Amino acid sequence: MRLTQGTFSYLPDLTDAQISKQIEYALGKGWALGIEYTDDPHPRNTYWEMWGLPMFDLHDAAGVMQEVTACRAAHAQKYVRINAFDATHGWETVRLSFIVHRPTDEPGFKLERTEDRGRTIRYTLHAYATDKPPGRRYG
Amino acid sequence: MADPASASPPGSRRVDLRTLYAESEIGSLLAELDNDLVGLEPVKRRIREIAAFLLVTRAREQLGFSSGAPTLHMAFTGNPGTGKTTVALRMAGILHRLGFIRKGHLVSVTRDDLVGQYIGHTAPKTKEILKRAMGGVLFIDEAYYLHRPENEKDYGQEAIEILLQVMENQRDDLTVILAGYQDRMDRFFESNPGFRSRIAHHVHFPDFADAELLNIVEKLAHQAEYRLSEDARVALRDYIAQRRQQPNFANARSIRNAFDRSRLRQAMRLVEIGAEIGADDLVTIEAADIRGSSVFATALPKSSS
């Protein structure tokens, strides 16, 4: 099952040229770009691993693309995303976040039902991939 | 159906360079350059060449010939104060307006910014700088400090290797300008032949002539809203001739400093008058403000002996 998280998640995967353009847009707005990767695709997992520090002071997408390529090569079987952080007062948050790389095989999620008091059903998601220990989850 | 341009035989297609020239900003750019920078003929010639090359590249593109991105890495050599840094700062803007680089910003670095302090520190540091310079110009002032032949374990070599790799593989993304004094740059290139061959443009900055230096002071004075009296101009001509004989003469930089000091002496003179003064007094630099320099004090006994 294809993971859909962040901006553009219902579009086909962006090509490198399209990713470049999105980065240009973010840089034009003065946002700092950060690259993150993970092998725990749960939607509530907000803490992905950082690939280096967020990149401030960049002017051109080529620098970010270089890091994206390096991160993809090092973590070919993990998810990689780009975050664009807006540091302006009042925002101070991620304004744009999208996946730029995914593992070749995505097993998807299981819906878990827990029976609670008064026959209430509570639902949660469980990623099949996380059955295996970190580092051995994909491929 | 075939494109009519490619269907006709190669020799018969025509393109008007004059229209292309008018469309681009090249004319205004070159005029501005001539106006703002005194002297520096070799530099201006090279910029004109690059501009002409751009024009021809565009014309070639219109007629469907291939046009690879040219290597634009440059090395600026010359004595202190000959305008290397000034030109490098403008070069980013020039190349951007000519359309060779995408962003037109300049990242100015020295050895400290590229070379780390312990093993494994250099590569991330250099890459960080390179990333920031993407789409613009990376200016490395006094580049020869990167290479320290007396210390084999120096991390400078690592920075050089990363630089060379990016200069070769990402020519479209980044232009590197190295600057430094002639003799040391020559030695630097000798010990790093890879650098020499990857730099297409070696531009030498000649020393300024006396008349050019005078011209520079007048431009500086004009910018700062000062005026040189006729006597002051004569005094300044003497000053330049004298200063040139003395050690540590740094061309335009020495002369700029002299101008700044003469402003101080002018201020002192006016304060000592202490009375009502006119707007003319405030903007005029007199001969006395220049003759007060220690350059004349040390030079006079020598010439009389």
Overview of this structure, please?
- The complex is a heterodimer of chains A (139) and B (305).
- Chain A is an alpha+beta fold.
- Chain A has helices at 16-28, 61-74, and strands spanning 32-38, 49-50, 79-86, 93-101, 109-115, 121-127.
- In chain A, α1 packs across α2.
- Chain A is globular and about 55 Å long.
- Chain A starts with 15 loop residues before the first helix and ends in a 12-residue tail after the last strand.
- In chain B, α3 (26-36) packs antiparallel against α4 and α11 packs across α12 (230-245).
- Chain B is globular and about 70 Å long.
- With 305 residues, chain B is an alpha/beta fold.
- Helix content of chain B is 59%, strand content 10%.
Order of helices and strands of chain A: HEEHEEEE
Q: How much of the residues of chain B is beta strand, in percent?
A: 5-15%
Binned strand content of chain A: 25-35%
How many helical stretches of chain A?
A: 2
Radius of gyration of chain A: 17 Å
- The count of strands of chain B amounts to 7
Mean pLDDT of chain A: 93
Q: How would a textbook summarize the main sheet of chain A?
A: 4 strands, antiparallel
3D shape of chain B: globular
Keywords, separated by commas or semicolons:
heterodimer; A: 139 residues; alpha+beta; four-stranded antiparallel β-sheet; two-stranded antiparallel ribbon; 2 helices; 6 strands; 19% helix; B: 305 residues; alpha/beta; two-stranded parallel ribbon; 10% strand; disordered N terminus
Concise overview:
With 139 residues, chain A is of the alpha+beta class. Chain A has helices at 16-28, 61-74; strands at 32-38, 49-50, 79-86, 93-101, 109-115, 121-127. Chain A has a four-stranded antiparallel beta sheet.
Topology:
The complex is a heterodimer of chains A (139) and B (305).
Chain A: H1 16-28, E1 32-38, E2 49-50, H2 61-74, E3 79-86, E4 93-101, E5 109-115, E6 121-127
Antiparallel strand pairs in A: 1-2, 1-3, 3-4, 5-6
Helix pairs in contact in A: 1-2
Chain B: H1 4-7, H2 17-23, H3 26-36, H4 41-62, E1 74-78, H5 84-98, E2 106-109, H6 111-114, H7 122-133, E3 137-141, H8 156-169, E4 175-180, H9 182-191, H10 193-198, E5 201-205, H11 210-223, E6 227-228, H12 230-245, H13 251-273, H14 279-283, E7 284-285, H15 287-291, H16 294-304
Parallel strand pairs in B: 1-4, 1-5, 2-3, 3-4, 6-7
